[in-house]
Q: What sequence folds into this?
Protein backbone atom coordinates (compact mmCIF):
# COMPACT_ATOMS: atom_id res chain seq x y z
CA UNK A 1 0.00 0.00 0.00
CA UNK A 2 1.43 3.33 -1.04
CA UNK A 3 1.67 6.10 1.52
CA UNK A 4 -1.13 8.63 1.63
CA UNK A 5 -0.42 12.30 1.14
CA UNK A 6 -2.48 15.38 1.82
CA UNK A 7 -2.57 18.05 -0.82
CA UNK A 8 -1.64 21.15 1.15
CA UNK A 9 1.86 20.24 2.35
CA UNK A 10 4.96 19.51 0.28
CA UNK A 11 5.37 15.80 -0.38
CA UNK A 12 8.97 15.71 0.81
CA UNK A 13 7.83 17.05 4.21
CA UNK A 14 5.19 14.34 4.41
CA UNK A 15 7.68 11.65 3.41
CA UNK A 16 10.12 12.78 6.09
CA UNK A 17 7.30 12.92 8.69
CA UNK A 18 6.36 9.36 7.82
CA UNK A 19 9.95 8.18 8.19
CA UNK A 20 10.22 9.97 11.55
CA UNK A 21 7.01 8.21 12.67
CA UNK A 22 8.48 4.90 11.61
CA UNK A 23 11.61 5.62 13.64
CA UNK A 24 9.62 6.73 16.71
CA UNK A 25 7.31 3.71 16.60
CA UNK A 26 10.24 1.36 16.18
CA UNK A 27 9.58 0.20 12.62
CA UNK A 28 13.13 1.39 11.93
CA UNK A 29 15.18 0.80 15.06
CA UNK A 30 18.11 2.73 16.49
CA UNK A 31 21.22 2.11 14.41
CA UNK A 32 19.32 0.07 11.86
CA UNK A 33 19.94 0.33 8.12
CA UNK A 34 17.22 2.18 6.22
CA UNK A 35 15.82 1.20 2.82
CA UNK A 36 17.62 2.78 -0.14
CA UNK A 37 16.30 5.86 -1.90
CA UNK A 38 14.85 3.69 -4.68
CA UNK A 39 13.23 1.34 -2.19
CA UNK A 40 11.66 4.25 -0.32
CA UNK A 41 10.48 5.73 -3.62
CA UNK A 42 8.83 2.49 -4.54
CA UNK A 43 7.37 1.99 -1.05
CA UNK A 44 5.89 5.47 -0.89
CA UNK A 45 5.19 5.62 -4.65
CA UNK A 46 6.91 8.98 -4.95
CA UNK A 47 9.73 10.43 -6.99
CA UNK A 48 13.26 9.36 -5.88
CA UNK A 49 14.33 13.03 -5.85
CA UNK A 50 11.60 13.71 -3.29
CA UNK A 51 12.88 10.88 -1.09
CA UNK A 52 16.41 12.21 -1.42
CA UNK A 53 15.26 15.60 -0.21
CA UNK A 54 13.33 14.11 2.71
CA UNK A 55 16.36 12.07 3.77
CA UNK A 56 18.69 15.08 3.63
CA UNK A 57 16.30 16.96 5.94
CA UNK A 58 16.43 14.11 8.44
CA UNK A 59 20.17 13.93 8.11
CA UNK A 60 20.50 17.63 8.87
CA UNK A 61 18.62 17.21 12.16
CA UNK A 62 20.76 14.22 13.04
CA UNK A 63 18.07 11.54 12.95
CA UNK A 64 19.80 9.54 10.26
CA UNK A 65 23.39 9.11 9.21
CA UNK A 66 25.07 8.19 5.97
CA UNK A 67 27.81 5.62 6.09
CA UNK A 68 30.01 5.70 3.10
CA UNK A 69 29.23 2.99 0.53
CA UNK A 70 26.81 1.19 2.80
CA UNK A 71 23.79 3.47 2.88
CA UNK A 72 21.76 5.35 5.42
CA UNK A 73 21.16 4.33 9.02
CA UNK A 74 18.96 5.46 11.89
CA UNK A 75 21.16 7.37 14.31
CA UNK A 76 22.67 5.65 17.35
CA UNK A 77 22.12 8.88 19.32
CA UNK A 78 19.22 8.46 21.71
CA UNK A 79 18.97 12.23 22.27
CA UNK A 80 18.21 13.00 18.61
CA UNK A 81 15.37 10.49 18.66
CA UNK A 82 14.05 11.78 21.99
CA UNK A 83 14.08 15.32 20.65
CA UNK A 84 12.07 14.22 17.63
CA UNK A 85 9.63 12.37 19.89
CA UNK A 86 9.13 15.45 22.04
CA UNK A 87 8.61 17.66 19.03
CA UNK A 88 6.10 15.27 17.50
CA UNK A 89 4.27 14.97 20.80
CA UNK A 90 4.03 18.73 21.16
CA UNK A 91 2.67 19.11 17.65
CA UNK A 92 0.05 16.39 18.19
CA UNK A 93 -0.99 17.84 21.55
CA UNK A 94 -1.46 21.37 20.24
CA UNK A 95 -3.33 20.10 17.17
CA UNK A 96 -5.61 18.11 19.46
CA UNK A 97 -6.27 21.12 21.68
CA UNK A 98 -7.11 23.19 18.62
CA UNK A 99 -9.63 20.70 17.29
CA UNK A 100 -11.20 20.36 20.75
CA UNK A 101 -11.40 24.15 21.01
CA UNK A 102 -13.18 24.18 17.64
CA UNK A 103 -15.78 21.84 19.18
CA UNK A 104 -16.24 24.29 22.06
CA UNK A 105 -14.17 22.59 24.76
CA UNK A 106 -11.99 24.63 27.09
CA UNK A 107 -8.49 23.26 27.77
CA UNK A 108 -9.61 22.22 31.27
CA UNK A 109 -12.63 20.35 29.94
CA UNK A 110 -10.41 18.64 27.38
CA UNK A 111 -8.02 17.53 30.11
CA UNK A 112 -10.81 16.09 32.24
CA UNK A 113 -12.18 14.29 29.16
CA UNK A 114 -8.74 12.83 28.62
CA UNK A 115 -8.61 11.62 32.22
CA UNK A 116 -12.01 9.95 31.90
CA UNK A 117 -10.96 8.32 28.63
CA UNK A 118 -7.82 7.06 30.30
CA UNK A 119 -9.79 5.43 33.12
CA UNK A 120 -12.01 3.69 30.56
CA UNK A 121 -8.90 2.45 28.72
CA UNK A 122 -7.45 0.97 31.90
CA UNK A 123 -10.77 -0.74 32.70
CA UNK A 124 -11.14 -2.28 29.24
CA UNK A 125 -7.54 -3.48 29.45
CA UNK A 126 -8.36 -5.19 32.74
CA UNK A 127 -11.42 -6.85 31.21
CA UNK A 128 -9.38 -8.11 28.30
CA UNK A 129 -6.63 -9.40 30.54
CA UNK B 1 25.57 20.41 -19.92
CA UNK B 2 22.84 21.13 -22.42
CA UNK B 3 19.16 20.81 -21.59
CA UNK B 4 17.40 17.57 -22.48
CA UNK B 5 14.69 19.48 -24.28
CA UNK B 6 14.96 23.07 -25.35
CA UNK B 7 12.40 25.21 -27.19
CA UNK B 8 13.07 28.72 -28.46
CA UNK B 9 10.13 30.77 -29.63
CA UNK B 10 8.61 27.60 -30.97
CA UNK B 11 5.58 28.01 -33.23
CA UNK B 12 3.46 25.47 -35.02
CA UNK B 13 0.36 26.19 -37.02
CA UNK B 14 -2.01 23.85 -38.78
CA UNK B 15 -3.31 26.11 -41.54
CA UNK B 16 -4.91 29.08 -39.79
CA UNK B 17 -4.84 27.38 -36.38
CA UNK B 18 -1.93 28.18 -34.10
CA UNK B 19 -1.21 25.10 -31.99
CA UNK B 20 1.95 26.51 -30.44
CA UNK B 21 2.44 30.24 -30.38
CA UNK B 22 5.97 31.11 -29.33
CA UNK B 23 6.83 28.59 -26.66
CA UNK B 24 10.05 28.84 -24.65
CA UNK B 25 11.21 26.20 -22.24
CA UNK B 26 14.28 24.31 -21.11
CA UNK B 27 13.92 20.95 -19.40
CA UNK B 28 16.82 19.68 -17.28
CA UNK B 29 18.03 16.08 -17.05
CA UNK B 30 17.00 13.82 -14.20
CA UNK B 31 13.46 15.06 -13.68
CA UNK B 32 9.99 13.66 -14.08
CA UNK B 33 7.87 16.45 -15.49
CA UNK B 34 4.13 16.64 -16.03
CA UNK B 35 2.87 18.34 -19.19
CA UNK B 36 -0.57 19.50 -18.23
CA UNK B 37 -3.17 21.58 -19.95
CA UNK B 38 -6.78 21.62 -21.11
CA UNK B 39 -7.85 19.89 -24.32
CA UNK B 40 -6.37 21.45 -27.41
CA UNK B 41 -3.70 23.35 -25.50
CA UNK B 42 -0.80 22.00 -27.59
CA UNK B 43 0.52 19.12 -25.46
CA UNK B 44 0.54 16.51 -28.19
CA UNK B 45 1.88 18.99 -30.74
CA UNK B 46 4.83 19.80 -28.50
CA UNK B 47 5.56 16.10 -27.97
CA UNK B 48 5.31 15.35 -31.69
CA UNK B 49 7.68 18.21 -32.50
CA UNK B 50 10.18 16.83 -29.99
CA UNK B 51 10.10 13.40 -31.64
CA UNK B 52 10.48 14.88 -35.11
CA UNK B 53 7.05 13.74 -36.30
CA UNK B 54 6.17 17.36 -37.02
CA UNK B 55 8.40 20.22 -38.09
CA UNK B 56 8.16 23.64 -36.48
CA UNK B 57 6.53 26.45 -38.43
CA UNK B 58 8.94 28.85 -36.76
CA UNK B 59 11.46 28.79 -33.96
CA UNK B 60 13.67 26.02 -32.72
CA UNK B 61 13.43 22.79 -30.79
CA UNK B 62 16.41 20.74 -29.65
CA UNK B 63 16.76 17.37 -27.95
CA UNK B 64 20.05 17.01 -26.08
CA UNK B 65 21.41 19.83 -28.20
CA UNK B 66 20.35 18.28 -31.52
CA UNK B 67 17.56 19.12 -33.91
CA UNK B 68 15.03 16.28 -34.06
CA UNK B 69 16.19 13.75 -36.65
CA UNK B 70 17.66 10.29 -36.97
CA UNK B 71 20.19 10.80 -34.19
CA UNK B 72 17.79 12.37 -31.74
CA UNK B 73 15.32 9.53 -32.30
CA UNK B 74 17.84 7.11 -30.84
CA UNK B 75 17.73 9.17 -27.63
CA UNK B 76 13.99 9.62 -27.41
CA UNK B 77 11.49 7.00 -26.32
CA UNK B 78 8.02 8.03 -27.40
CA UNK B 79 4.64 6.71 -26.34
CA UNK B 80 2.02 8.04 -28.73
CA UNK B 81 -1.58 8.57 -27.73
CA UNK B 82 -2.73 5.83 -30.11
CA UNK B 83 -1.58 2.29 -30.76
CA UNK B 84 0.60 1.84 -33.81
CA UNK B 85 1.80 -1.74 -33.36
CA UNK B 86 0.55 -3.99 -36.17
CA UNK B 87 -2.54 -5.92 -35.08
CA UNK B 88 -1.33 -9.25 -36.48
CA UNK B 89 1.83 -9.26 -34.32
CA UNK B 90 2.02 -11.19 -31.08
CA UNK B 91 3.35 -9.48 -27.95
CA UNK B 92 6.63 -11.35 -28.42
CA UNK B 93 6.80 -10.19 -32.06
CA UNK B 94 6.47 -6.62 -30.82
CA UNK B 95 9.35 -7.09 -28.40
CA UNK B 96 11.52 -8.56 -31.19
CA UNK B 97 10.55 -5.58 -33.34
CA UNK B 98 11.72 -3.13 -30.68
CA UNK B 99 14.86 -5.18 -30.13
CA UNK B 100 15.70 -4.83 -33.83
CA UNK B 101 14.97 -1.15 -33.92
CA UNK B 102 16.55 0.18 -30.74
CA UNK B 103 20.02 -0.73 -29.47
CA UNK B 104 19.06 0.57 -26.01
CA UNK B 105 16.11 -1.85 -25.67
CA UNK B 106 16.34 -4.09 -22.59
CA UNK B 107 14.57 -7.32 -23.60
CA UNK B 108 14.68 -8.97 -20.20
CA UNK B 109 13.21 -5.96 -18.52
CA UNK B 110 10.31 -5.92 -20.95
CA UNK B 111 9.67 -9.63 -20.36
CA UNK B 112 9.57 -9.29 -16.59
CA UNK B 113 7.37 -6.18 -16.69
CA UNK B 114 4.87 -7.89 -19.00
CA UNK B 115 4.80 -10.90 -16.69
CA UNK B 116 4.07 -8.72 -13.65
CA UNK B 117 1.21 -7.12 -15.55
CA UNK B 118 -0.11 -10.56 -16.58
CA UNK B 119 0.08 -9.81 -20.29
CA UNK B 120 0.02 -13.04 -22.35
CA UNK B 121 3.20 -13.03 -24.47
CA UNK B 122 1.83 -15.26 -27.22
CA UNK B 123 -1.40 -13.34 -27.76
CA UNK B 124 -1.84 -11.33 -30.93
CA UNK B 125 -2.31 -7.59 -30.50
CA UNK B 126 -5.77 -7.67 -32.11
CA UNK B 127 -7.02 -10.06 -29.41
CA UNK B 128 -5.98 -7.77 -26.53
CA UNK B 129 -8.24 -5.27 -24.81
CA UNK B 130 -7.60 -1.54 -25.17
CA UNK B 131 -6.02 -1.31 -21.72
CA UNK B 132 -3.79 -4.33 -22.28
CA UNK B 133 -2.58 -2.91 -25.60
CA UNK B 134 -1.65 0.27 -23.76
CA UNK B 135 0.26 -1.72 -21.18
CA UNK B 136 2.25 -3.48 -23.91
CA UNK B 137 3.17 -0.19 -25.53
CA UNK B 138 4.15 1.45 -22.29
CA UNK B 139 6.31 -1.52 -21.29
CA UNK B 140 8.10 -1.40 -24.65
CA UNK B 141 8.71 2.32 -24.35
CA UNK B 142 9.90 2.15 -20.74
CA UNK B 143 12.23 -0.77 -21.49
CA UNK B 144 14.48 1.44 -23.52
CA UNK B 145 17.41 3.27 -21.91
CA UNK B 146 16.60 6.62 -23.46
CA UNK B 147 17.59 10.16 -22.53
CA UNK B 148 14.13 11.56 -23.00
CA UNK B 149 10.86 9.72 -22.52
CA UNK B 150 7.82 11.37 -24.02
CA UNK B 151 4.67 9.76 -22.71
CA UNK B 152 1.44 11.04 -24.24
CA UNK B 153 -1.46 9.99 -21.98
CA UNK B 154 0.23 6.84 -20.70
CA UNK B 155 -2.27 5.70 -18.08
CA UNK B 156 -5.61 6.83 -19.46
CA UNK B 157 -6.94 3.41 -20.38
CA UNK B 158 -5.53 1.16 -17.67
CA UNK B 159 -7.15 0.13 -14.41
CA UNK B 160 -6.08 1.77 -11.10
CA UNK B 161 -4.08 -1.24 -9.91
CA UNK B 162 -2.10 -1.38 -13.14
CA UNK B 163 -1.74 2.40 -12.96
CA UNK B 164 0.05 2.05 -9.60
CA UNK B 165 2.30 -0.64 -11.03
CA UNK B 166 3.11 1.48 -14.07
CA UNK B 167 3.93 4.56 -12.00
CA UNK B 168 6.10 2.39 -9.83
CA UNK B 169 7.81 1.04 -12.93
CA UNK B 170 8.46 4.57 -14.07
CA UNK B 171 10.00 5.71 -10.77
CA UNK B 172 12.03 2.59 -10.19
CA UNK B 173 13.41 2.39 -13.72
CA UNK B 174 14.20 5.88 -14.77
CA UNK B 175 17.82 6.76 -14.49
CA UNK B 176 19.17 9.95 -13.06
CA UNK B 177 20.36 11.50 -16.29
CA UNK B 178 17.18 11.01 -18.26
CA UNK B 179 14.05 13.13 -18.35
CA UNK B 180 10.48 11.92 -18.45
CA UNK B 181 7.78 14.18 -19.83
CA UNK B 182 4.29 12.90 -19.12
CA UNK B 183 1.19 14.44 -20.62
CA UNK B 184 -2.01 13.51 -18.83
CA UNK B 185 -5.33 14.60 -17.45
CA UNK B 186 -5.06 12.22 -14.48
CA UNK B 187 -3.11 14.73 -12.43
CA UNK B 188 -4.10 13.47 -8.99
CA UNK B 189 -2.83 10.00 -9.87
CA UNK B 190 0.59 11.07 -11.03
CA UNK B 191 1.45 14.24 -9.18
CA UNK B 192 3.31 12.58 -6.34
CA UNK B 193 5.85 11.20 -8.81
CA UNK B 194 6.36 14.54 -10.54
CA UNK B 195 9.35 16.77 -9.79
CA UNK B 196 8.00 19.60 -11.86
CA UNK B 197 4.94 20.50 -13.83
CA UNK B 198 4.26 22.57 -16.92
CA UNK B 199 0.90 24.23 -17.50
CA UNK B 200 0.26 24.92 -21.15
CA UNK B 201 -2.65 26.80 -22.70
CA UNK B 202 -3.26 28.15 -26.19
CA UNK B 203 0.18 26.99 -27.23
CA UNK B 204 2.04 28.87 -24.54
CA UNK B 205 3.54 28.06 -21.18
CA UNK B 206 1.33 29.37 -18.39
CA UNK B 207 3.45 28.10 -15.56
CA UNK B 208 6.51 25.90 -15.03
CA UNK B 209 7.44 25.09 -11.44
CA UNK B 210 8.38 22.42 -8.95
CA UNK B 211 5.44 20.51 -7.46
CA UNK B 212 6.72 20.84 -3.89
CA UNK B 213 7.39 24.56 -4.36
CA UNK B 214 3.74 24.96 -5.38
CA UNK B 215 2.64 23.21 -2.19
CA UNK B 216 5.00 25.39 -0.14
CA UNK B 217 3.97 28.67 -1.75
CA UNK B 218 0.27 28.14 -2.26
CA UNK B 219 -0.55 25.17 -0.04
CA UNK B 220 -2.18 23.47 -3.01
CA UNK B 221 -1.72 20.29 -4.94
CA UNK B 222 -1.10 20.48 -8.69
CA UNK B 223 -4.56 19.03 -9.24
CA UNK B 224 -6.23 21.78 -7.20
CA UNK B 225 -4.10 24.46 -8.84
CA UNK B 226 -4.97 23.14 -12.30
CA UNK B 227 -8.69 23.36 -11.54
CA UNK B 228 -8.20 26.92 -10.33
CA UNK B 229 -6.09 28.14 -13.25
CA UNK B 230 -8.15 26.48 -15.96
CA UNK B 231 -11.59 26.95 -14.43
CA UNK B 232 -14.21 26.90 -17.18
A:
Amino acid sequence: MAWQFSSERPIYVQVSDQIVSNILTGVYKKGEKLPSVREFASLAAVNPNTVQRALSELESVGLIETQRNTGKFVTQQGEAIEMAREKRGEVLASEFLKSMAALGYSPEQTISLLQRAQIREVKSDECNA
Amino acid sequence: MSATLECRDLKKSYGPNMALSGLNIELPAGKIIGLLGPNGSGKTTLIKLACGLLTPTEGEIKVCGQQPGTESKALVSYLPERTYLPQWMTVTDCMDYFQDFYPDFDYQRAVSMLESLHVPAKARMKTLSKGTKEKVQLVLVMSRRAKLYLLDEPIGGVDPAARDYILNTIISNYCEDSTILISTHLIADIEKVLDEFIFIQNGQIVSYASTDALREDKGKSVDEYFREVFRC
Notes: The mean pLDDT of chain B is 91. Chain B touches chain A at residues 30-32, 164, 167-168, 171-172, 192-195, 211-213, 215-216, 219-221, 223-224 (CB under 8 Å).
